[in-house]
Amino acid sequence: MLDQINTKSAVDVRSHSFVGTEEYMAPEIVTGKEHDSTVDWWSLGILLYELLVSYSPFRGTCQKETFRNIIHSAPDLSVIDSIPAKSLIKKLLTKVNCHLFNRDVFIESEEKTRR
């Protein structure tokens, strides 16, 4: 049954929505750019970071500062002890022209790492 699920159709849907918890918003959402469901990978990276260090990597003193941090700052990965976790979070929170995580590139790079 799982082999019949079409995940590509969910990725191909584009949006300009601006909803969500501010600290979990991807740069595309904050800047109002069109985005797709791959922004969820960014949120996963934020969640994993918080689970490991107990605070958000981009939290500011106000919403404007949080958004500025999301767009312009890099997460402090030195506070994460686990090398595999650090590697995963770095990949999930990579900003490339405000388009983040390409799941095909990630999966391919993880397969090369295992070899």
Structure explained in plain terms:
The protein is mainly α and 115 residues long. It has one domain: Transferase(Phosphotransferase), domain 1 (Orthogonal Bundle). 48% of the residues lie in helices and 0% in strands. It contains 6 helices and no strands.
- Main sheet attributes: strand count, strand direction, barrel closure: none
The first-level CATH class is given as Mainly Alpha
State the helix count.
Answer: 6
If classified by CATH, what would the architecture be? Orthogonal Bundle
Q: Proportion of β residues? A: under 5%
- Gross geometry: globular
**Unreliable spans:** 98-111
State the secondary-structure class.
mainly alpha
**Which H/E pattern describes the elements?**
HHHHHH
Averaged pLDDT, please? 75
Task: Indicate the percent of residues in helices.
Answer: 40-55%
How many domains? The number is 1
Question: Notable features of this structure?
Answer:
115 residues, mainly alpha, Transferase(Phosphotransferase), domain 1, 6 helices, 0% strand
In summary, what is this structure?
It is built from 6 helices and no strands. It is an all-alpha fold and 115 residues long.
Helices and strands, with pairings:
Layout: H1 8-11, H2 27-30, H3 39-53, H4 63-72, H5 83-92, H6 103-114
Helix pairs in contact: 3-5
